[in-house]
Amino acid sequence: PRACTGLKFRDRLPPLCTRMPPKVRRWVVRAAASVSTPSPGTVCAATCEAEGEFCPGRAQVTVAKCGSDATICPDLAEDLLSQSLTACQGIELLPGFVHYPQLLTPATQQRLLDTAVEVTLSAPGTSRGWYRWGEKSGRMELNDGTKARFWDKADVFPRDFSVLGHALARRLGQDFAGLAEPAATFRPAVGCLNFYTHRGRMGWHFDDDNFAKRDRPIIMACLGDAADFGYKARSSDPDQSVRLESGDVIAFGGQARYLVHALLRVHPRTCPRDLRFPVVPGPGRVSVTWRDVGAEDGLTSNSDERLGLVQTVNTLPRYRQK
């Protein structure tokens, strides 16, 4: 079955390939072949157990078993703080809203991009990822027009994804006293991956309690093309914006937990030359967001259901089949 994709993509994908419609299967094969594969010989501590995952640019780390799958090893988070993050200084743009320019190292940016593409392409059978089949066009399309959205529980991601989110929260709490308490209790329970073409936008909004706990920060990493991120404390305030480059990280919590924000513009052809986007989805901007939220807060569906890739009672009205 591994011949279906031509590489060890994720263990669950190849057996599903034979059950996909032929057109979808051919598209997945082409897309999978374009994803960069990890470099052998380097190990990152990607689990709280004795195993690691192969990732580019990481040194081997010894990790003690620390109990349940939900537990994040403090030593592992500290290791990611030193190996994956730079020493850049964060800037508090508003009380509780922090911008870290170039916080992620180039190797961490590439690994995170590879993870985002892998997760959103390895989805057929369990999730549809960033794509839907266009009945009119007869081809795979982004699931939300000029952009694509994906979110699901953190356990569908490689373990080091959650560990990096936890490390970023620790850095935030160490650097900003006003966010120390929210960051200390942060657990990256849900991962969100948005892809934007150069025409992609996201309108003004704030994140309600059913998409992030009210007393926990929201943490976002930026990859690929630069973008103008709009923000304001209240809807009635004047619009402000900050340009976010690949490798930047922003976080909002505390007084800024209900920050009103938008993705105003993507600047094409501004991606770092060394950051390799695969053929699918091609160049663009990716935002990676870690959220502490769960069913107890009202988040009872993933992006498949909300965007109508799987029709349920949770599907948004505009995506419901007529």
Ordered list of secondary-structure elements with their pairings:
Blueprint: H1 13-17, H2 22-33, E1 43-44, E2 53-54, H3 74-83, E3 91-94, E4 97-100, H4 106-121, E5 131-134, E6 139-142, E7 147-153, H5 159-175, H6 180-184, E8 190-196, E9 202-205, E10 218-224, E11 226-232, E12 240-244, E13 249-252, E14 260-267, E15 285-291, H7 303-306
Antiparallel strand pairs: 1-2, 3-4, 4-13, 5-6, 7-8, 8-15, 9-14, 10-13, 10-15, 11-12, 11-14
Helix pairs in contact: 3-5
Spell the H/E element sequence. HHEEHEEHEEEHHEEEEEEEEH
User: Average pLDDT, to the nearest integer?
Assistant: 77
Low-confidence spans: 1-19, 37-72
**Main beta-sheet strand count, sense and barrel state:** 7 strands, antiparallel
Per DSSP, the total helix count is 7
Helix content: 10-25%
Q: Tell me the span between the first and last alpha carbons.
A: 37 Å
The whole-angstrom Rg is: 19 Å
Which percent band covers the strand fraction?
15-25%
Overall geometry comes to: globular
Question: Strand arrangement, largest sheet?
Answer: 3-4-13-10-15-8-7
Helix/strand class: alpha+beta
Tally of DSSP β-strands? 15
Quickly list its features.
alpha+beta, four-stranded antiparallel beta sheet, globular, disordered N terminus, 7 helices, seven-stranded antiparallel beta sheet
Would you mind describing this structure in some detail?
The chain contains 7 helices and 15 strands. A 7-stranded antiparallel sheet has the order 3-4-13-10-15-8-7. Strands 9-14-11-12 form a 4-stranded antiparallel sheet, with no helix packed on it. A two-stranded antiparallel ribbon has the order 1-2. The protein has helices at 13-17, 22-33, 74-83, 106-121, 159-175, 180-184, 303-306; strands spanning 43-44, 53-54, 91-94, 97-100, 131-134, 139-142, 147-153, 190-196, 202-205, 218-224, 226-232, 240-244, 249-252, 260-267, 285-291. Helices cover 21% and strands 24% of the residues. The chain is of the alpha+beta class and 322 residues long.
